[in-house]
Specification:
single chain, zinc, disordered N terminus, HSP40/DNAj peptide-binding domain, Hsp70 protein binding, unfolded protein binding, Helix Hairpins, alpha+beta, four-stranded mixed β-sheet, HSP_DnaJ_Cys-rich_dom_sf
Length: about 475
Amino acid sequence: MLFTLGKHVPPTLQLGGWYKFDHSRWIDQGRSFPSQGSLSALWNKNIDKRAQIAAASLHGSVDSSAEDTDLYEVLEVGRGASKSEIKKAYHKAALSSHPDKVAESERASAEIKFKSVSKAYEILYDDDKRHLYDTHGMSAFDSAHGNGMGAGPDLEEMLSQMFGMGGGMPPGFSGPGPRKSRKGDDEEHPYQVTLEDLYKGKTTKFASTKNVICNHCKGSGGKEKAKAKQCASCQGKGSKQGLRSIGPGLVTQETVVCASCKGKGSVYAQKDKCKKCKGERVTEARKVLEIYIPRGSKEGDKITLEGEADQVPDQEPGDIIFGLVQTEHETFKRAGADLLAEIEITLVESLCGFSRVIVKHLDGRGLHIQHSQPNARVLEPGQVIKVVGEGMPHKKSELKGDLYLVVKVKFPEHGWLEDKQVLAKLKELLPTPETPIQADVVDDVAYDETANLNEFGASAEGDEGWVDDEDEEEGEAQCAQQ
């Protein structure tokens, strides 16, 4: 007998064709599918399961008020709990709610609770995600923003499992899914930060003006019940072919949005335009935006505010993307997670040691170093010492890089010691001079103690400054003949 998929099967699964029916299964080109009764039952069962999993993965609960679930309450910790307390609470909650640790009758609810506990731990243990949750709640993790959280099982994957096939849906099946609208252009801006901002992290707010869909005409651009006419400029296409210069004497053809209808393909007469937006379909609005820069960020990192760009009718708004640009620091230089700075010590400190704050760090702390003689070595100009764990913090970690300090020794000013007895005593204390260099001929030479190394190489080479007597005589003879 012949059978067509009818009202008992969900419309999204209708094949729209005829299949041979053998009382229990449909047959098509050697491939068999579940019978109508088993398919309907399996569909209904998977719809319930799909709804439970989607709700649980997004908010940790299938309850309609799941969006208001407090993740801190899920783990039974306070809002000021440390990471170690959160981790300890998670282990305790996960152990008690693990599906393998409960009776069969309680396994379904245990799975939901276990997913809720895992999701709470995933967000609260991560510093960046925790900050987003504390600031915006679970709306910051809405699957509509494309962050991967809360997305339920894929329809095609579910159908594949239902039909017992290795992948894909049977011929004629097509999962309609939600219609995805186009996304508007992203806006990229440089954002200057100091090295202190990157070391400590920073949250800043500022007012922004952007285009939003006109709430009076709902983005149509016209008055209620007014009818738009086809745009004469683009013949209703919403776009036109234009020319763009790509170099001297070179142009390329490209499709551009019609300027007359703003891409809609239709326009309103002047009398029919919306009074609020004047037919533009959008109006200006001010909004306070917040940028969160995680500690340990670096120049070039991107901070994305999803959906905060200008709104355009019939499109999802694009993102505002801030690229971090670090200003030069007067003390520190950065390379990866390491920091480099120069410290200045006196000659006495170089020889005899010191115990003092040697540098002020990016968070305002003074770093104290004790370098005592006779055990410590003499610090020479240009020598490098390393302070472990005092570099830049790693993102999403408690670890830090190292701080490298280049030693600069400040010598006494000219004429600092005039007492000959003290000078003689100093000579006795300091190491003796090196063994004199032996030479057959010794000349006493004068020297300039204010010389500048930048002048090195400025002296004339070879005979550049020499004038030959014969050349000079020839020049005089030529002058006489003239």
